[in-house]
Amino acid sequence: MPHPEPGSVIQTARPGRAFAFLFVGLIFFVLMDSFGKALAAQMGTPLISFARHAVHAVLMVLIFGPGMGAALLRTDRPWLQIIRGLSLAGFTLSFFSALGHLPQAEATAIAFITPFFVMLLAGPVLGERVTRWRWLGAAGGFLGMLLILRPGAALSPTGVAFALVTVACSIVFQLLTRKLSASPGEGTAATVLITALVGTAVSVLTLPLMPVWGGWPDSLTPLMTAQLIGIGVCGLVCQVCLVRAYYWSSASFIAPLTFLQIAWAAIAGWVFFGDLPDALGGLGMAIICVSGIASMMAETRQATPVKQS
Predict the structure, then answer these.
(1) How confident is the model at residue 2 (pLDDT cuts 50, 70, 90)?
(2) What tens digit of pLDDT does each residue of 132-159 get?
(3) pLDDT in tens, 85-134
(4) Which three-class secondary structure string do you get for the chain?
(5) CA-to-CA distance for 294 and 136, rounded, in angstroms?
(6) Mean pLDDT score across all residues of the chain
(7) Is the CA virtual torsion 158, 162, 167, 171 positive or negative?
(8) Which of 154, 156, 159, 148 is nearest to 280 (CA)?
(9) Which pLDDT score is estimated for 112?
(10) Which has the closest alpha carbon to 84: 171, 5, 163?
(11) Are 56 and 232 in contact (CB under 8 A)?
């Protein structure tokens, strides 16, 4: 899985290929969430989380292990990698729990408030400059979330609580991802595999909570088994597609397009579960998408190109 090292420059950009990989990746993201939502109605979240991380880890070892060997686990910052894995494990457990109580589109839209908080916290935590466009985008995203969570929206308080925990875990995950991606010696494969292994371990530790966290299924049907495996497969495919998308184009091109996931989630929620957001909820989702895309594009236009030698 070739990919540029942190700080490298793509010499021949292929935005068409980048969009194709991103398009496929987002579809697998949404499919993974749809499988999780369907399973959350039949079993506890810890088992779903275990399948998501364990299948992902096994596939990583089988696919990349023969070629990479020990390099698959090489890291200079093991504690940061472990904390990153813990944050993704928390994200997985809380988000699939939220999907058990909320429509898929609303849960996804709430989770997408994360980029705005990451924009703001990148200043004090990572030393990045927080521009006025980031402040405006964050304000718009927060307004959109308030429209989704407004009084009278008929959303489950339990689902909303899990969704907000998802946001907190995702903020930590994304900040650590940025920090690790800028650290020499931290390869993408090692980061992805360590995260999957930590997630598997956390999921195993939470399995005893199944009776009070959704319960054990009476039996695993072939369809349920396929969905559990599918969650792990989708998790791996979407990450590989995202890496390839960044390989063929820049972050400034890719980042705004990730907000399309909210639209795909709304379509999937309607097709698979018959859920449609109400007018104000739909407006809130649109505001989150527009705010994110507009702020990122504004910063891209104002960025000063750096000539590479």
Answers:
(1) very low
(2) 776 777 788 778 878 887 766 678 999 9
(3) 999 999 999 999 999 999 988 898 888 787 777 777 767 776 767 677 76
(4) CCCCCCCCCCCCCCHHHHHHHHHHHHHHHHHHHHHHHHHHCCCCHHHHHHHHHHHHHHHHHHHHHHHHHHHHHCCCCHHHHHHHHHHHHHHHHHHHHHHCCCCHHHHHHHHCCHHHHHHHHHHHHHCCCCCHHHHHHHHHHHHHHHHHCCCCCCCCHHHHHHHHHHHHHHHHHHHHHHHHHCCCCCCHHHHHHHHHHHHHHHHHHHHHHHHHCCCCCCCCCHHHHHHHHHHHHHHHHHHHHHHHHHHHCCHHHHHHHCCHHHHHHHHHHHHHHCCCCCHHHHHHHHHHHHHHHHHHHHHHHHCCCCCCC
(5) 9
(6) 82
(7) positive
(8) 148
(9) 77
(10) 171
(11) yes
Work out whether the CA dihedral 24, 68, 180, 192 comes out positive or negative.
Answer: positive
Instruction: Note whether 263 and 289 are within 8 A (CB).
Output: yes
Instruction: Give the residue from 292, 309, 307 showing the smallest Cα distance to 137.
Output: 292
Each domain of the chain, given as residue ranges in start order, spans 15-301
Q: pTM value?
A: 0.80
**Interatomic CA distance for residues 29 and 172, integer angstroms:** 20
Residue 186 has pLDDT above 80, yes or no: no
- List Cα–Cα distances, 89 to 41, 54, 60, 92, in angstroms: 20, 12, 17, 5
Q: What is the largest CA-CA distance in the chain?
A: 63
Structure tokens at 278: 């109400």
- In one-letter notation, the amino acid at residue 45 is T
Return the structure tokens found at 293.
Answer: 């895309």
Q: Which of 87, 83, 88, 101 is nearest to 37 (CA)?
A: 101
